[in-house]
């Protein structure tokens, strides 16, 4: 089975939001520049229009693992990456946004949101922002990793105002792994690394560029072939293993994805537990 690119993206500027400009996001920016130039060369009338959102500044610990240089230290990551991209582009201006997404963020203006984030709250913000659009279906390309393994998943998110559900809509990361949008399950050890050596204790040197390569390749196939047979991939560098996620409803079912023609809201496990506890208390005190 194959998924076909949204037809309107072949004739209009493709508006992309890159959320996160760190380990994977800074590598992903290079892929987006290359993809834009390749798409235009191959006949796309407009290519990408990219906005990068990230609140952080470049630190010395970022040099060597993220796509930054000593002269960038102290500058906002999003500004650095966008300035660099605009120098490589012709007749195209990309933008930066110094800030964070939350569940109130409007993502109405974007066709594709690429998540290169390392926390559940940011993923929740992406999901609710895409669900809160006025109409239609938009792509969510999620990238994530641990020390030496990670995943890339291209999904589609429909507006909550949409009646019914397409049974072949690509499931997004929150449908496959609901815990990924639950801040209550966040790892509390999120202290920034003080040096490159300390950062490398937490993550393999090449996991971020590897994840960015696979994410870029999914977009490359989608925009050059107009269709894809796999909408995701799981990578483990220690075991040297790569496993694709096929466009296949049977595969989605094994992850617990429900496709019955109705819209199903993704509810965080912590919220579900609180509701169940409240319901039990109400019954006990009735």
UniProtKB/TrEMBL annotation:
InterPro entries: PRTRC_ThiF (IPR022500), ThiF/MoeB/HesA (IPR045886), ThiF_NAD_FAD-bd (IPR000594), Ubiquitin-activating_enz (IPR035985). SUPFAM superfamilies: Activating enzymes of the ubiquitin-like proteins. It holds the Pfam family ThiF. Signal peptide: none annotated. Gene3D superfamilies: NAD(P)-binding Rossmann-like Domain. Residues 14-128 form the THIF-type NAD/FAD binding fold domain. This is PRTRC system ThiF family protein. The lineage of its organism: Bacteria, Pseudomonadati, Pseudomonadota, Betaproteobacteria, Burkholderiales.
């Amino acid at each position: 089975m194959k998924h076909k690119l949204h037809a309107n993206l072949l004739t209009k500027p493709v508006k992309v939001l890159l959320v996160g400009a760190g380990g994977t996001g800074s590598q992903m920016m290079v892929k987006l520049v290359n993809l834009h130039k390749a798409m235009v060369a191959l006949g796309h009338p407009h290519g990408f229009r990219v906005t990068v959102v990230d609140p952080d500044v470049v630190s010395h610990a970022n040099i060597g693992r993220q796509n930054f240089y000593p002269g960038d230290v102290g500058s906002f990551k999003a500004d650095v990456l966008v300035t660099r991209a605009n120098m490589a582009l012709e007749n195209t201006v990309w933008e930066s946004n110094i800030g964070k997404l939350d569940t109130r963020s409007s993502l109405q203006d974007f066709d594709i949101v690429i998540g290169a984030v390392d926390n559940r709250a940011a993923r929740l913000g992406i999901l609710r922002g895409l669900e809160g659009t006025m109409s239609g279906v938009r792509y969510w390309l999620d990238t994530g990793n641990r020390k030496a393994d990670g995943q890339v998943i291209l999904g589609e998110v429909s507006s909550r105002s949409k009646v019914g559900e397409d049974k072949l809509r690509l499931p997004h990361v929150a449908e496959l792994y609901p815990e990924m949008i639950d801040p209550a399950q966040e790892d509390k050890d999120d202290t920034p690394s003080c040096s490159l050596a300390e950062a490398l204790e937490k993550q393999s040197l090449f996991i971020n560029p590897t994840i960015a390569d696979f994410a870029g390749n999914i977009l490359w196939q989608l925009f050059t072939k107009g269709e894809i047979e796999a909408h995701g991939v799981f990578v483990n560098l220690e075991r040297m293993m790569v496993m694709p996620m096929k466009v296949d409803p049977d595969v989605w079912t094994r992850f617990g994805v429900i496709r019955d023609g109705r819209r199903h809201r993704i509810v965080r496990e912590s919220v579900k537990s609180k509701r169940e506890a409240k319901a039990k208390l109400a019954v006990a005190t009735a």
